[in-house]
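Work Package 3 (structural annotation) set out to generate three-dimensional models for the target panel prioritized at the project kickoff. During this period the team completed the workflow that converts sequence records into discrete structure tokens, so that structures can be stored uniformly alongside our sequence database. As a representative example, we reproduce one entry of 434 residues exactly as it appears in the project archive.
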Amino acid sequence: MYTSSMATALLYALPLIGSATGFPAPNAVPERKWALTIDRPERFSHTHYKGRVIPKAVELPAWASTPLTTLEKDITTTANDAIANLFTYRDADFDFKNISWWQVGNAYAAVASYDLFMGPAHQQQVTEGLHRLIERGDSGQSDPVGLENQFNDDSLWWALACVDAYQVYGDAACATEAKRLWQWVKDTSLVVQTGIAPNMGGIQRTAVISDQCALEYGTYWTTKPEEFYLNSITTGLMAQASARINEAVGASNELVDVAQGTIKFLRNHTVDAGQLLVNWDGVEGDKCSVSPGAYTYNTGVYLAALVSLFHASGDTTFLHEAEEVAYASMETAYWTDGAGLITDGKGLVDNSDGAGFRSILLRALVRLYKATSNEDVKTEMRGFVNLNFNMMYTQARSGDDYDINWFGPFTKRTVWGQFVAVDLLAAAAIMNTQ
């Protein structure tokens, strides 16, 4: 059920730098090209990327001033009608048909995240769905327990959906499930000791985790005993879930420690220090080899985790770093056309894991938009969202249905096209009304 694009088959075996960090030297990192003529957006003057940044005035890209296109209905009604349409895809168990388990969790998370900032209009649909699925579990598992499954990133996506449901609706069952899922992943899959094949939470791992490259706080992709891959998405989700639970459900030193430790792992191993994008998909833990792959959702989760750490700690260095990550994510030519349009998903017809990656970045930009008072970055985020929304609305829409390919034309009504569109609709509604 999990057709991952994690690219585990294509690995780079990079030499260690010294004996401690094990992340690649700058000249070993594949160059990514910026959309602008400069090497990186001149948004900040800084001595190092880890939060020590000083904003400075700069001319924004021309597309940053893009307004919304003319709509048949106001933007809030447009978003609400698309959400109502999304719920028509649910079955009798409140599961969304024809998408994978992690995508179902993100469909609920997209709606709960929208309600968090626009008001709890969809409380009944979200909470009744989450309650039923917590009770039933993942139908693809032989002995399901709550919302978890063997893929830790799946479990953590659901944890985030539950945190949002608790924060906006006050749903205690969702808070309990979010904490349980987090604890499950921490106990079974968060690396705390290297140089051994650990027994964690009753799962005896068969691969020895290298002690040559500081892999503490990396998070196993799955709970399979033979797993050795510590990937960016699972580790980033662990960072975000830790900070979000600390912020919204209940604060603890343990949650903050895990959030900061997992962010440190990403910075040391998979975040490109020069461009601030997550340009490496993960680390092969038994060899310290990194797997290439720059995906919108890896950077989106990293960005959202930084915003959540700002909320959890009050430390503005996390917020400033998040702002620079946002600029990088909108201006890179790696997953945009160089002029503000996301090319992730261009040409798609059928569902795949990658279909929903761009929506995670957009959801993260909304979190930053609500957290920051930096008008430059807010203006650019609004223009970026409007530009992409306008493309989808004018080229890939039929009534309240949206195609998975935002460049159009509209080809067919699908649940995967609809749930991915909700995050863009939500971003447009929030950024143009608040």
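Strands lie at 44-46, 53-55, 199-200, 203-204, 229-231, 280-284, 289-292, 397-398, 401-402.
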